[in-house]
Amino acid sequence: MQYSDLKIAIVDDNSDNIRFLEALLNKQGVSHVRSYRSGSAFERSAKQNTYDIVFLDNQVDTIKNLYDLVSELVYNETLPPITRLVYMAKRQSAFDYACEYPFHSNQLLEVPYTPQDLATILKEHTLQVKEFKLAYQFIRAKKYKNALLKLKELRKQEYPNYLKKARNQLLVNLLLKLGHYSLAKKLLLPLADRNIQWAKWSLFHVNYELKDFEACKGFLSEPQTRQDYPIRVFYWQIYIAFQTDNRELATAQVLAFPIEDMSPSMFRLSLMVLHVCKEHDAIDNLIRRKERAYSEDPALSTLLSALAIKIRFLETLDNKEKIESKVLKSIQNDLKSAITRHASNMQKYCPDEFNLLLIMMMLIEGKEVDASAKLLQLSHNTLDDPGSATLIAYLFFLVKDLEHAREMLFNAHRALGKQHRNSHYVLAGLMHREVFAKIYQEESDQQEAYMQFATRLFDSGEYKDTIKMCSKALRNGINDQALNDLLLRSSREAGLKEQDYIHYLQQAKPRQTVVS
């Protein structure tokens, strides 16, 4: 089989590893190979070049690891659907950091690997792209229904197992993209019964959309799932705990997870969980334990300092009106001293965090006008980041600029709907829930917000999200004709029937408490 036309990228900070892999690829007849020693160098190249396969080192303990980078490049469509992502790792659990993408093939290459391992990857990728060429073209053009029909034509084809898997994954993800969750579940159940892991994870995501949280929790508690995917189990259990209003469980997940195995993104999530649950002593303990792990790395040590200062700011801003003036002045001096001490390193390693800290300092000092002006500048650059947009919405709320606070929260909601289902999605979703409740405190305000969000989503052509928002409004007591009309129009535009979204309309079971 000829591989001379394949364009391959290698991203690894170890030059020996790069030379070894390049030599093996050249022996297989691959002539277009480019290597990059950093994620940022690859990111610049990917914006100008198209790659068929990308081999990635599995280092995760960096401010922005390659899993996070790839998620961004898939999200903004820099990497086309045909690009295969191959993570090189020493153990299966390292692959746990990679989330599933709708259409990009995603696999582990366990280190050490052999020439035959590489030959298999090249062969399977080439045949997969050739066999499903038209479907991929439709997917890239966002003609998902056409792609689904094309793949359905191939369901009776006799394929080797790896092509069956690729076809079935594409079929399932197209059904999910189109909102046909019940059909996807019907396709997945027999595969999940055979203990096929990708099918079980896809079924988990279907059950999540269908709001069958008991089925989700059952899968996450399976011994094999917990053993092979501890990272995904960690952040999904936290998110489902908040969805079911069980904050004690979310806190327990954070406290039970080994601190040495927490990546920076997991640590961010953990701090926010403990902050929301008001576990202040646990926050201090977590930071102290992580300080020891990050002490040798200036970038990670600086990020830790920035996050610790940010959490202190959030605690203070949440309770500013209740704090005595002398105590507030002391806290203000401590925070200013901490920012000054780490300023140069924060500007170098995490400038976005540094800019937010300066705005929070203005708020503590009562400089609302200056803070508002800085927030307006930042808000234009964070529309695609749901977590940052949500935090900025909250800061707008603190300066009593409700118009911009609500606008940023809506932008965060839109970005959240497009976010890949990873720890960043869970963190942003958690923050959005909390900030929404602060900005829209009255039930009537929340109901009005649901209506406004639904109308704007419909006007921008986001019909599936419109259905979700309309359903949320109906569950919360709004039941006027305009809302029902919007729901029906959205379902028609999305090509969905009532059976495809009826689960959104069902009331969640009330949580049992001691009182009830």
Tell me, briefly, the overall form: globular
Unreliably modeled segments: 508-516
Helix content: 55-70%
The Rg value, from CA coordinates, equals 24 Å
Distance between the termini: 68 Å
Helix count?
Answer: 26
Number of strands: 5
The largest pleated sheet is described as: 5 strands, parallel
Mean pLDDT: 89
SS-derived structural category: mainly alpha
Overview of this structure, please?
The chain is mainly alpha-helical and 516 residues long. Helices cover 67% and strands 5% of the residues. It has 26 helices and 5 strands. Strand 1, helix 1 and strand 2 form a beta-alpha-beta unit. The chain is globular, with a radius of gyration of 24 Å. The protein starts with 6 loop residues before the first strand and ends in an 11-residue tail after the last helix.
Summarize the structure.
Helix content is 67%, strand content 5%. The chain is mainly alpha-helical and 516 residues long.
Keywords:
mainly alpha; 516 residues; 67% helix; 26 helices; 5 strands
Describe the secondary-structure layout.
Elements: E1 7-11, H1 15-27, E2 32-36, H2 39-46, E3 53-57, H3 66-75, E4 84-89, E5 106-110, H4 115-131, H5 133-140, H6 144-153, H7 161-178, H8 181-193, H9 197-209, H10 213-220, H11 223-228, H12 230-243, H13 247-256, H14 264-276, H15 280-294, H16 298-318, H17 325-349, H18 351-364, H19 368-379, H20 386-398, H21 402-418, H22 423-439, H23 443-459, H24 463-475, H25 481-494, H26 498-505
Parallel strand pairs: 1-2, 1-3, 3-4, 4-5
